[in-house]
Amino acid sequence: MPRPALRAAAFVAVLLVVLTACDAVGGLGGSPTPENTPRAVPTPRPTPLPSPPAGAVILDATGRQYSTAVINGVAGVPTIIYFTNNDDVNHNVTIYRNASKDLELFRGDLFVGPDRTVIYEVPALPAGEYYFSDFQFPSMHGTFIVR
User: Fold this and answer.
1) Is the pLDDT confidence value at 75 over 70?
2) What's this model's pTM, rounded to 2 decimal places?
């Protein structure tokens, strides 16, 4: 074998040994490096929904609709709303003085479902009829009657 061909064969053999050694220690992508190491994603455990407090108004959002168009409260007493979002979009409950939404009286935090529940405490209001609506989906609305 001529000398240049022997050198080329030796070079290829050494290169293969080096590449194989590098791959064995993770240098060529055969094994993940620390910055791109895949991390196990924990599987969320189902958690039971909190129980509704005694006397709470039960309200759900499903299919971008509230479960009722009328909720009731007691004058001079905070109203507890046990609100479950069954949709995969943000929902909340916002209470206004009237349907013109000229004065916001309460805004619950927006949160995404499905199957998540929050408990809102609406401050005590005087007797009257108020308007409630979803802040993000105004087509979801109803009447909040306080007696």
Assistant:
1) yes
2) 0.67
